[in-house]
Amino acid sequence: MVKPFDELPGIVSLVSGYTGGHTVNPTYEEVGTETTGHVEAVQITFEPAVFPYERLLDIYWQLIDPTDKGGQFMDRGYSYRTAIFVHNDEQRKKAEASRTALQASKRFKDPIVTEILPAAPFYTAEAMHQNYYKTHPLDYKLYLKGSGRDEFLEQHWNSREDQKRLKSQLTRLQYEVTQHKVIEPPYENEYWNEFRDGVYVDVISGDPLFSSADKFDSATGWASFTGPIAEGLIRREADYSGGEVRTALRSRLSGAYLGHLFFDGPEPAKQHYRVNSAALRFIPKEELEANGLERYLELLS
Fold first, then answer.
1. Do 86 and 92 meet the contact criterion of CB atoms below 8 Å apart?
2. Please, which residues have CB within 8 angstroms of residue 145's CB and are 6 or more apart in sequence?
3. Which residues contact 283 (CB under 8 A, 6 or more apart)?
4. Taking the CB of the first residue and of the last residue of the chain, which one, N or C, has fewer CB atoms within 10 A?
């Protein structure tokens, strides 16, 4: 639950721990006995102006099985049930509206059983449970692979209905680029020579990915950047197509294919994020406030 939120802009801290029960300062072993009333939880401190609460909820639903009241995937028991702990009435209303919308979407056949509860005292877990995916990367990967989580999420969040919705939302080129890794022709795309001040957002989710402050003329005919607005917004993966190993880029939150990372860019880092225009939507500086992105104006000053 930590990794998907880590390194996203606006996320101040992520702390693993226990909450919702009656035992003071429980240990991992005590919570595992299912006698403390606690659940394993992650406490997220965030900046709402940068990363809205509604976006946290959107990501959360796409990480869990909200129809399982007996645990999560291979982890069974009361302490593994899903819940959203809210700190005020505004959060409660937004969480309830989000849960209602998910149920109404009929994405899941069974009822949504994730509880929305008042925040209770939170107890920080032992050091070995903090940032586990970083400190125990092999164990984390093996656990994730064996849990069945990825297969479940793929089935419910990348269904035929989702693909039909994307086809209606995007142009044919946008769909082929973001979903099938089609590469646009150089010099025949929308943003290769766009150098106005502004922000480039994910064409599917609207998440801000790149800034004009990091754009440069690579003489390749594609939109090129020295880096993203935040590294946590981009997922890198090996690409073995074309007879060579390259680093493909995807939008971390929508999964949209973006382009490739090369190391022939400007000094000192020499990073060159070569991105397909069809995966992006450009919002000029003067329109950022109208699009709720005024917080990125400082990047362009």
1. yes
2. none
3. 198, 199, 200, 201, 291, 293
4. C
| Distance separating alpha carbons of residues 60 and 70, to the nearest angstrom | 18
Two structure tokens written together for 43: 């406490």
**Domain with 148 in it: what CATH number?**
3.30.1060.10
Beta bridge partners of 44: 14
Rounded average pLDDT per 10-residue block, the chain, 301 residues: 88 97 98 97 94 93 96 96 98 97 92 98 97 94 92 87 91 97 97 98 95 97 96 91 88 94 95 98 97 91 74
Task: Note down the domain range covering 149.
Answer: 11-157
How far from the centroid of its chain's Cα atoms is residue 130's Cα? 19
- Amino acid found at 209: L
Residues 6+ apart with CB under 8 A from 3: 133, 140
Number of domains within the chain: 2
Helix axes 172-180, 160-169, angle to 10 degrees: 140
- Is the full-model pTM beyond 0.85? no
Reported residue count of the chain is: 301
CA distances from 79 to 13, 121, 252 (A): 22, 15, 29
Q: 278 with 198: CB under 8 angstroms? A: no
84 and 32 inside one domain = yes
pLDDT at 231: 87
